[in-house]
């Protein structure tokens, strides 16, 4: 009786924790753009000046700059990853103004500071004096003068070059301007008032603090060290993403109900225990994904469902081995021990091969393939805990209680034993 009470207590506590935490887990789980709507862009990086090679450090720095720039707009949790030697994949879910964001992402690649020195007119600005990557990253900031007018303080890497430029432009009559461009869009063209010898300067003329901050953010976050070219793009509307999510949840609910009924109908008591462990498995996998900060996508859900299939298969193998031992004439406790022992190696071998396949997908695959592999690997590891060892613990408590010794509780008929 104590063992049955322990079994019931463990199950009630487990289900209580699941019921208490599941709404929060489902609400806080991040959804990918194929479920929430949004867009995905694959960029190919190349040297900004057309010379040299794309290094791993420069690629990572570019990805970080893109993520910072997206975050500065208030967009929540963009997914920016590097792929291969020269590619960056950007995924942004839940974005209403897609074109505005895409335009913003492309602008930083061509940040330039230009002058009209030697050009056709004072507003021609045909000469590029500085590129965006020549500024110290993160050094641009908003300051205020004595009249509380906003200024943008900047800092360059090459002090001598900046001194030469500022001396040449401020020494002319009249003083020349140093225009700031994004692509071919003029953002500001302040007059160079004096020579800057320490590599720092301030840009005035911004009408509002918001304009000054936008310019500072452009200099800080927009000056990417690499030029980015769109190679692939995919857009999913919010309505289509919501429909995909609803249909996926409906299909998952129907499949889960059928699985639970199948396990109970064919395997009775071991099937009931398996169903309990499957519910714990699903909850624990959701919790692990939440702790990892993983983004759930359609490929991730596919891996999730595959993990459930692997978990069901583990329970079926164990239940069938137990039934075989009972049919051979052994007692229920002996059949439980022998069935668990004989099924363990088969199940572990299958899990090891799946782990190898998942690891290969993770280390070689890219994008959604890698996301699929992450969920698959997590599901296999959790499956070993919840659908190999946990069912054994529950069945041990039940059988040792001595209350469930009928063959029908295990899906075995008396005639099957007599025939042997």
Descriptive account of the structure:
About 55% of the residues lie in helices and about 15% in strands. By secondary structure, the protein is of the alpha+beta class. It has a four-stranded antiparallel β-sheet. The chain is elongated. The model has no long low-confidence stretch (mean pLDDT about 80).
Class inferred from helices and paired strands: alpha+beta
Low-confidence stretches: none
Strand order of the largest sheet: 3-4-2-12
Which radius of gyration do the C-alpha atoms yield?
32 Å
What kind of sheet is the major sheet? Answer: 4 strands, antiparallel
Order of helices and strands: HEHEHEEHEEEEHEEEHEHEHHHH
Label the overall shape.
elongated
- The count of β-strands is 13
Number of helices: 11
Distance between the termini: 33 Å
Summarize model confidence as the mean pLDDT: 82
% residues in beta strands: 15-25%
- Binned, the helix content reads 55-70%
What are the main properties of this structure?
11 helices; 4-stranded antiparallel sheet; 420 residues; alpha+beta; 16% strand
Short précis:
The chain is 57% helix and 16% strand.
Helix-strand blueprint:
Blueprint: H1 2-28, E1 30-31, H2 33-36, E2 38-47, H3 56-72, E3 79-83, E4 87-93, H4 98-106, E5 111-115, E6 127-131, E7 141-144, E8 150-155, H5 159-171, E9 179-182, E10 185-188, E11 200-203, H6 209-222, E12 226-236, H7 238-292, E13 295-296, H8 298-327, H9 332-364, H10 368-400, H11 414-419
Parallel strand pairs: 1-13
Antiparallel strand pairs: 2-4, 2-12, 3-4, 5-6, 5-9, 7-8, 8-11, 9-10
Helix pairs in contact: 1-7, 1-10, 3-6, 7-8, 7-10, 8-9, 8-10, 9-10
